[in-house]
Design a protein that fits this description.
This protein is α+β, with helices and mostly antiparallel strands. The protein folds into 2 domains: 116 residues, Up-down Bundle (AhpD-like), CATH 1.20.1290.10; 125 residues, Nuclear Transport Factor 2, Chain: A, CATH 3.10.450. The chain has 10 helices and 6 strands, in the order H-H-H-H-H-H-H-H-E-E-H-E-E-E-E-H. The termini are far apart.
């Protein structure tokens, strides 16, 4: 099926993956114009507005559909969409619990049972497109020892604070090939003994992670501290990455 409103299709793909296309296909033989309105208006106009991230929009949508109490099919679609854009099950359940305060316990219970069903059957997209989901998937692959380099733009800028003459993996790296070399330098220096993501934050085209980690260097010394990572993501690819950490303490541990 093809619609002229390509920005709407693009946003639908970011949010709903294959589920959105199935909904559109189900309308093709009975109300194709309704499908066109969904693409052009809901996703091409509203979902594409600035000011809220996709994750924020999905939290709002899940809350509204839960409060309505009579839109179970649509709620299930958007519960899946909320997972697609990078929200955790815990965040979704917190929203559904809050629904009880303003829409009543029956609405909240119905929504929680719908979430239970969706969670049990959920399969993540083979390739996430929403910024928060892309950043989470990249970090998951990185920590598993298999960084998905195809998530990086060919023209990515990758910045780790510090002087590369002192700390081999520090400084500005440009392009996917250079980032691969940076990651190899980090792996060659030692290994993480702890890596904890305390909190994710997201914006319109970016995702930030706050956490703490401990690192054992091959020279026998160790470092532990906090960090913030910032990803800028467009069209499902990471365009830039910045690490904020105590570069002085890291250099001191590396050179000790």
């Amino acid at each position: 099926m093809h619609y002229e409103h390509l920005s709407g299709w693009k946003k639908l793909k970011e949010v709903d993956d294959q589920a959105g296309e199935r909904v559109m296909a189900s309308l093709a033989d009975i109300a194709p114009d309704l499908g066109r309105y969904i693409i052009e208006f809901a996703f091409g106009e509203i979902y594409s507005r600035p000011g809220l991230s996709l994750a924020q929009r999905e939290l709002a949508t899940v809350a509204m559909l839960s409060a309505m109490g009579n839109a179970a099919p649509q709620l299930k679609v958007h519960l899946e969409a909320a997972l697609n854009v990078g929200l955790s099950r815990e965040e979704i359940i917190e929203v559904l619990i809050q629904t009880a305060v303003y829409a009543g316990f029956p609405a909240a219970l119905n929504a929680v049972f719908a979430a239970k069903e969706v969670f049990a059957q959920y399969h993540p997209p083979s390739r996430p497109l929403a910024p928060l989901a892309v950043a989470k998937a990249f970090i998951a692959g990185l920590m598993a020892g298999q960084p998905p380099l195809d998530y990086l733009s060919e023209a990515i800028t990758w910045h780790i604070p510090g002087d590369r003459h002192i700390v081999p993996w520090a400084g500005l790296w440009q392009g996917r090939a250079e980032v691969e070399q940076c990651l190899k330098q980090i792996a060659a220096a030692g290994h993480a003994t702890q890596f904890v993501l305390d909190r994710w934050y997201d914006g319109e085209n970016e995702a930030l992670a706050r956490g703490h980690f401990a690192w054992q260097y091959k020279n026998g010394h160790a470092y532990q501290g906090t960090f913030i990572m910032r990803f800028v993501v467009l069209d499902g690819q990471i365009q830039s990455y910045e690490m904020f950490e105590d570069s002085f303490a890291i250099a001191k541990a590396w050179l000790a």
